[in-house]
Structure prediction request, 128 residues.
Amino acid sequence: MAETDTIAASTIDELKATLVRALERGDATLAAALYEPGARLLPPGAPVITGEDAVRDFWQRRIDGGSDGGVLETVHRAEYGDVAIEEGRYGRRSGETLLDSGKYLVVFRRRPDGAWRFATDMWNSDAG
Prediction:
C-alpha cells in the first residue's frame, strides 16, 4: 500500500496502517482524525477518553512519552454491515525498544462515504 497522509481509509487494514504511520511521524492530529466524533478510548489504568480533543491529547501524550510506532495484528474480525469488531494483538515501541504488548478489541464504523473510523478502542497490556 502506498504511504499517504489521507485519512479516507476504505478498509480497516488501511485505517490501522494509517494510525501506525501517524504515531511513527509523531502526528497526534492525524491519529485523532482516524476516530469518529464521539469515539471512546478505553486505555488500561485510565478513565474513558471521549471527544476529538481528548483523543488527540491522549495520542500526543503517548508520542511525547516516547511511543513512535508499533504493530496491530488482527486475530479475528467480524463485519456486520457498517460495523466491524476486531480482536487483535498490539506491540507499542520506541525505536527498537518494545514498550508494551497486549491485546485489543476495537469497534469500527463505516461512514456514509465508505471510510472506516475507530468508534470504540480498548486494549489491555500483557504486563499485568
About this structure: The first strand starts at residue 35 and ends at 42. The domain at 12-125 is CATH 3.10.450.50 (Nuclear Transport Factor 2; Chain: A,). The radius of gyration is 14 Å. The CA atoms of residues 40 and 89 lie 19 Å apart.
